[in-house]
Amino acid sequence: MRQIRENMERMAKLSDEEWAFFSSKLIRREFSKKMPLLEIGQTENYLSFIEKGIVRYYIPREDNDLTFAFVFDGEFTSAYDSFITRLPANYTIEALADTLLWQISYTDLQDIYAETKIGNTIGRYASEGLFLKKSKRELSLLNDSAEQRYRNLFTERPELIQKIPQKYLASYIGITPQALSRIRKRIY
Question: What Pfam families does the annotation carry (predicted)?
Answer without folding.
Answer: cNMP_binding
